[in-house]
Amino acid sequence: MASYQAPLREIDFVLNDVLKVGRLAELAEFSDATPDTLSGLIAEAAKLIEEKLAPLNAVSDAKGCKLENGEVTVPDGFTEFWAMYRDAGWIGISQKKEYGGANLPYTLAKVLEELLCSANVAFALYPGLTQGCFEALEASASDEIKRIYLPRLATGEWSGTMCITEPQAGSDVGAAKTRATPNGDGSYRIDGGKIFITSGEHRMADNIVHFVLARLPDSPPGVKGLSTFVVPKYLVNPDGSLGARNGVRVQSIEHKMGINGSVTCVLNFDNAQGWIVGAPNQGIQNMFVMMNLARIMVGFQGLGQCELATQNAIRYARERKQGKAFNGKSEIIEHPDVRRMLLQMKATTEGARVLAYETAMYVDLARHHPDASVREAAQDWVDLNTPLVKAFCTDAAVELGSLVIQVYGGHGYIKEHGVEQILRDAKILCLYEGTNGIQAMDLVRRKLMLHNGRLPGRFFAAVKADLDGAPDALGAPLSAALDALERTTRWVQETYKSNPEDAAFGCCDYQRAFALTYLGWNWLRMARAAEKTGDAAFAKTKRVTAEYFATRLLSQVPALLGNVRESAASIMALDASSL
Amino acid sequence: MASYQAPLREIDFVLNDVLKVGRLAELAEFSDATPDTLSGLIAEAAKLIEEKLAPLNAVSDAKGCKLENGEVTVPDGFTEFWAMYRDAGWIGISQKKEYGGANLPYTLAKVLEELLCSANVAFALYPGLTQGCFEALEASASDEIKRIYLPRLATGEWSGTMCITEPQAGSDVGAAKTRATPNGDGSYRIDGGKIFITSGEHRMADNIVHFVLARLPDSPPGVKGLSTFVVPKYLVNPDGSLGARNGVRVQSIEHKMGINGSVTCVLNFDNAQGWIVGAPNQGIQNMFVMMNLARIMVGFQGLGQCELATQNAIRYARERKQGKAFNGKSEIIEHPDVRRMLLQMKATTEGARVLAYETAMYVDLARHHPDASVREAAQDWVDLNTPLVKAFCTDAAVELGSLVIQVYGGHGYIKEHGVEQILRDAKILCLYEGTNGIQAMDLVRRKLMLHNGRLPGRFFAAVKADLDGAPDALGAPLSAALDALERTTRWVQETYKSNPEDAAFGCCDYQRAFALTYLGWNWLRMARAAEKTGDAAFAKTKRVTAEYFATRLLSQVPALLGNVRESAASIMALDASSL
């Protein structure tokens, strides 16, 4: 069986030694959130998650969810764990006190997201979507809706969903057809069908709050004619008590490759009553408040799967004996090719953790820093990093999900060992909340263009500042990657205006090259920070892993960027029928 | 649902235009095997496989195999298809006429392997292991065993297995403990347990022939003390009729990530009666006759999955509409990043097909060419190519299995669409018959060293001869990759003697770089051959795909080879506990 221990030492190291999380406690909002407090909370949540949630991972995969007579049954133990997690106050840990939250940093909530997702990514989607729904309503809903819904979402009394996708409208959100018709009393009648609705129906929470994208009568076509609505499973009385069942029903649930403990619903809205959230035809903007945070969340899901894969691979490789390695030892960790796989996993996971945590910290700074110019800079980092976190951490989860099976050999393919589940669970992460190709297009066509192209410049400047005095083994490959990335970034920014097909053709390679360069910077910072801990063994492992990353992963950057700059004209000119 | 149409045009193009399969008909052995005959046979088998086997793929995955009261039930339709495939004579198509085969080229048998594996890789394992068992007995068994067993394996009246792995002996075959004790009558008593035995128990064939690795009393430790035995499920009378049930029983079957239609058994040998195959303590050599052919077979399994992934991705992308691409069209095949994924799949699959088919043709030439020096050269190619075919085609199957899901978006993750099965089925291919890391070690420590290192020289010379007059777009990147590969090959050959850890650490990167260079050569040859067909549209697609490969995949070679030449000393020096 796969097992899970929260990597508390690593988490503390990244938060405190690398990213200086103490900066958050200097904000008025988070004066209680000292590094010690955060560490204590993380350790407390970790204990609950390790002991009560991780053991459900294999069985929830095997049993999955059931739909009978319109009612969904979640896997054994989920309802009990939801109650424990809810009652401990973790679901609204970063929400405002006035809405029943604990008002602690978003960064803390994301660290818990990593832990939850390592232990059971399918379960993590229930609180994850609930937080997403909260964020969407908090940003755009009326005070009355906020007053009723937010406290109940923050406490986990109710859970949330986001209802965007329709059969004909996946990546093309603007093709959505679900209709919203004014009832004349301020509410709307919602009719239509939504697919791929995570947590769309279950009985763990008393009510389910659907955040729904729909189209008002006579609205413009495409994304500019979409509005957002809140549609509860049970109608809500003015005092917050529950009324009649609303006209939203689960029609079927999907049988999937993985995340079987997470219910994925086809929902029918048939004369359902809803209330508009935000202004008419502003739905796409409202949705993106939630979607951008959801993309960061999915990045953390990927990070959680990377960690799970890596720690199981290392543990197994330390115990399993086969033959004799060149150094005379029998554990497979001593075989060079097995060790190469483990270093690949370790270098990827730990480097990705810094990317993800730093992005979360910038969310906190963008929201709460007193200095407007710091908030602006932090928001630039969040905007730039969102596609990188989402795409890199999830592609890495699939890569590492495959590698952990490889380390286990044939045993990895047997369900009983529990690691093949990682690859199956991880693959969805590359698809939902915008496929990783959509992330790459967001990076190339939006993030590189925003504010006259200033976003990547913040990254280049930060890395250059840190390159000063870097040891050659880390600094030289990082500097080379950065130079190439800077030049290619200018090429993409210019080419996108004149020849978007060329710029778009290489967008995934560009995105990966950017993320690898970012991780190269993370490894330089980790190697330096580890040196200062005074723990020589820890510092040595970090240095060796940093050098592995610099030599063997950063080295991919020039070829990836070379791909980006090739013309795609002949390829795009081929007839679809001749492929 | 995923669907399958055999790519007959591609197969004919590779066999006839690229590899000149007519050379086989010039051999005395295969004078009937003209290109037209081969094409006709392939088309005939393809019709049967498309119509009768492919439709079983999804259902055999969903239902899997059942073990009840010691009896295995295979998925619905398998027994009927086995009978059809057997009665049409396909199982022994390349076996000698004297043993009931059709004596057609091994190359033809492997083309059929590709078709079978695209249609249903789980089913393909039953005839595949039967052919493997035939090959092992043909190479090493006594005439009496051959007389009894071979005709029944060639016709598919009986099926075969290879019983190698034990719980403590996976990659380390020499740790096998199964005992063989002389009975005094020329037979042996076999006792022990074997795991991961594909097709180890079922009732599609009248008897199952187990080819078993076991240890004689007082044999030397390790691989030098292993011998091989034939152990039938039912004892066999001298006239070939079946006698009593032998002492081999299925103890349990595995629940796996994929290939659910293939039964994977834990077998107990308890006072089973067996007969030695070949000389005592020569088991590992006997096993490798079968194992090397099995590795090529697994490469073809990977090719089959690559083809299945590619053709489904292209079909879906032609039909599915989302948004508007830059060129104004709506089909997702017109979106640059989707097209990039399709080109990646097409360039990989078609390039891999030439590698696999060429290897199969060299098997035929090594066996049957009248000129000893041609046979020797052909065997060198087979030896060199075996790890490349096995590892590259199976890694590619996983990569493309992931990409086809990505092309389908969220729908790809739903079982109903049938493409997530490809990734699950494909992953085993990287593990069995020697993990891909074992292949890389075979390449580095054996194949580069054989005959004073002459094997790779044959490849370098052949590519150089073809580079003459190559168009720049294809020739320049291939020439650069080849130069780097040649230099790194010399480095590996020298380093392996003095510092095997350094040479071994990069073995997988070296293997991939070698295979990519091989595929670069294949694409040069395909582009040229397509030009000569006179079909301008076909030639254009081939040229564009060749250029895609040259620019975007061959470009990985220098970085991969750079990795190979880095020292691994600091990494190998890390304590296992500090990883």
Automatic annotation (TrEMBL), chains A, B:
<feature type="domain" description="Acetyl-CoA dehydrogenase-like C-terminal">
    <location>
        <begin position="460"/>
        <end position="575"/>
    </location>
</feature>
<dbReference type="Pfam" id="PF02770">
    <property type="entry name" value="Acyl-CoA_dh_M"/>
</dbReference>
<dbReference type="InterPro" id="IPR013786">
    <property type="entry name" value="AcylCoA_DH/ox_N"/>
</dbReference>
<comment type="similarity">
    <text>Belongs to the acyl-CoA dehydrogenase family.</text>
</comment>
<dbReference type="InterPro" id="IPR025878">
    <property type="entry name" value="Acyl-CoA_dh-like_C_dom"/>
</dbReference>
<keyword id="KW-0274">FAD</keyword>
<feature type="domain" description="Acyl-CoA dehydrogenase/oxidase C-terminal">
    <location>
        <begin position="281"/>
        <end position="446"/>
    </location>
</feature>
<feature type="domain" description="Acyl-CoA dehydrogenase/oxidase N-terminal">
    <location>
        <begin position="43"/>
        <end position="157"/>
    </location>
</feature>
<dbReference type="InterPro" id="IPR046373">
    <property type="entry name" value="Acyl-CoA_Oxase/DH_mid-dom_sf"/>
</dbReference>
<dbReference type="InterPro" id="IPR037069">
    <property type="entry name" value="AcylCoA_DH/ox_N_sf"/>
</dbReference>
<dbReference type="InterPro" id="IPR009075">
    <property type="entry name" value="AcylCo_DH/oxidase_C"/>
</dbReference>
<dbReference type="InterPro" id="IPR006091">
    <property type="entry name" value="Acyl-CoA_Oxase/DH_mid-dom"/>
</dbReference>
<dbReference type="InterPro" id="IPR036250">
    <property type="entry name" value="AcylCo_DH-like_C"/>
</dbReference>
<dbReference type="InterPro" id="IPR006089">
    <property type="entry name" value="Acyl-CoA_DH_CS"/>
</dbReference>
<feature type="domain" description="Acyl-CoA oxidase/dehydrogenase middle">
    <location>
        <begin position="162"/>
        <end position="271"/>
    </location>
</feature>
<keyword id="KW-0285">Flavoprotein</keyword>
<dbReference type="InterPro" id="IPR009100">
    <property type="entry name" value="AcylCoA_DH/oxidase_NM_dom_sf"/>
</dbReference>
<protein>
    <submittedName>
        <fullName>Acyl-CoA dehydrogenase family protein</fullName>
    </submittedName>
</protein>
<dbReference type="Pfam" id="PF02771">
    <property type="entry name" value="Acyl-CoA_dh_N"/>
</dbReference>
<keyword id="KW-0560">Oxidoreductase</keyword>
<dbReference type="InterPro" id="IPR052166">
    <property type="entry name" value="Diverse_Acyl-CoA_DH"/>
</dbReference>
<dbReference type="Pfam" id="PF12806">
    <property type="entry name" value="Acyl-CoA_dh_C"/>
</dbReference>
<dbReference type="Pfam" id="PF00441">
    <property type="entry name" value="Acyl-CoA_dh_1"/>
</dbReference>
